[in-house]
Amino acid sequence: MSWAVVFGLLAALLLLLLLLTRRRTRRPGEPPLDLGSIPWLGYALEFGKDAASFLTRMKEKHGDIFTVLVGGRYVTVLLDPHSYDSVVWEPRTRLDFHAYAVFLMERIFDVQLPHYNPSDEKSKMKPTLLHRELQALTEAMYTNLRTILPGDTVEAGSGWHETGLFDFSYSCLLRAGYLTLYGVEAPPWTQESQAQDRVHSADVFHTFRQLDLLLPKLARGSLSVGDKDQACRVKGRLWKLLSPARLATRAHRSKWLESYLQHLEEVGVSEEMQARALVLQLWATQGNMGPAAFWLLLFLLKNPEALAAVREELEPVLSRAEQPISQMTTLPQKVLDSTPILDSVLSESLRLTAAPFITREVAADLALPMADGREFTLRRGDRLLLFPFLSPQKDPEIYTDPEVFKYNRFLNPDGSEKRDFYKNGKRLKNYIMPWGAGHNQCLGRAYAVSSIKQFVFLALARFDLELTSPDMEIPEFDLSRYGFGLMQPERDVPIRYRLRP
Ligand code: HEM
């Protein structure tokens, strides 16, 4: 090795050491700064292992705003729900939603879109999920849920069947959701085409689920060599299953899909990249509904009083209907809109299990006003993180016994929806935030709510559902999934079900 190379290597090593040991200091007006003890990495390991416990500890140490070093990035964490509005309504030029989304798009799904203009994409996609289109989606979802739910199938047979509640809920919602957005085998629905829809959507679900399990590691860039091979294989398979050429033959494709494909064509995205974007969208649109429905059903099965109240609310719908439930082709919107008890149960289960990170890139040096009058300066290039799961959702000052499921927590004594929750004596605007808030609040919220409610309705009306071991504890969370939306359980919950007579 020549002296020049040795000298070069030494210089690079020195530079690296200098970078690793150069410690940022807190400037006047900035939030408390905590760099942890490991240079550059900071708190990356603790954060990745169990973000909720780590952030709880940091909140006790520093209060409701602080900056931590996480894998070379400075992340300012804000945990005061009264101050969230000053973040979620900031213009993109100051706090940018998309920079981190684009980073994850690339890292997890290998998607790179030329001339990507998120505002343009959003303005094209928004109308496809609202108003008339929402009604069309809701109706298609009901039909597809009936295709997928074992009740209508020969294989359901009679007698009890055993399964896992998580698998049951996730599989039904993702498969029906996939058929609703990406289209079905052939119109009109025949027994044969429905059987094909069941087989194909099961293939999509099982392949998707293998990728879903690798997601936290993919996002953190911590895949083992074996995991990498597996991720590569699974993605390749999904890109084939969802290729534009394959989707071109499908019937009843949603307006959402048509508009998205047209948009991708217009901005010059290749067919190969379109398939990748469609896999990304499968996750973005379907990754949370199944887990949400799982927790909701599990809380009901563990709380007989809550289950009885929900059943009692649904009973009149069934008795007033002109047809038996097995023949109903839609669930009228006015029925979906008049179930305050089920709505309260949904809000309560989302309060306990929805744990997305609301992340923004600080696009310019700025002053962040807090609701209590304090003001903190944020540095351009840092990341800002809200974690509503800790506060408001699990905050004991807002919710008494915040760990306990109370089915009527979001109901007033007169049975109407409760919206009054307080912290520091002040009414909260954002008291649960499973859908985010502000400029980037979830666009699919109404569709997701109606889909989950239809699934719960069908599951309760058509089946007797029981926990195999009624005394079993509610499973712990898979702690690696904080930040991705709905939490998933560490293990599945065995249930048995049978068709109701
Ligand atoms: C239980 C199901 C769902 C949950 C819990 C959920 C939650 C969320 C959250 C937390 C955000 C990000 C907010 C932020 O960072 O500020 C978001 C954004 C979004 N969601 Fe959902 N979502 C669900 C289902 C859906 C569905 C079914 C669709 C579409 C069919 C959808 C479409 C979107 C879109 C397009 C955005 C981005 C909005 C933007 O760019 O401004 N979501 N969702």
UniProtKB/TrEMBL annotation:
InterPro entries listed in its UniProt record: Cyt_P450 (IPR001128), Cyt_P450_CYP7A1-type (IPR024204), Cyt_P450_E_grp-IV (IPR002403), Cyt_P450_sf (IPR036396), PTGIS (IPR027286)
Record keywords, A-Z: Endoplasmic reticulum, Fatty acid biosynthesis, Fatty acid metabolism, Heme, Iron, Isomerase, Lipid biosynthesis, Lipid metabolism, Lyase, Membrane, Metal-binding, Prostaglandin biosynthesis, Prostaglandin metabolism, Transmembrane, Transmembrane helix
Gene Ontology process terms (BP): apoptotic signaling pathway; cellular response to hypoxia; cellular response to interleukin-1; cellular response to interleukin-6; cyclooxygenase pathway; decidualization; embryo implantation; negative regulation of inflammatory response
Main localisation: endoplasmic reticulum
Binding positions for heme per the UniProt entry: C442
GO terms assigned for molecular function: heme binding; hydroperoxy icosatetraenoate dehydratase activity; iron ion binding; monooxygenase activity; oxidoreductase activity, acting on paired donors, with incorporation or reduction of molecular oxygen; prostaglandin-I synthase activity
Enzymatic reactions: a hydroperoxyeicosatetraenoate = an oxoeicosatetraenoate + H2O; prostaglandin H2 = prostaglandin I2
GO cellular component: caveola; endoplasmic reticulum lumen; endoplasmic reticulum membrane; nucleus
Annotated EC: 5.3.99.4
Bilayer topology annotation: Single-pass membrane protein
Tagged with keyword Transmembrane helix: yes
Subcellular localization(s) per the UniProt record: Endoplasmic reticulum membrane
Lineage top rank: taxon: Eukaryota
Listed cofactors: heme
Function: Catalyzes the isomerization of prostaglandin H2 to prostacyclin (= prostaglandin I2).
PANTHER family to which the protein is assigned, alphabetical: PROSTACYCLIN SYNTHASE, PTHR24306
Family statement drawn from the similarity comment of this UniProt entry: Belongs to the cytochrome P450 family.
Protein name in the entry: Prostacyclin synthase
Organism field: Catagonus wagneri
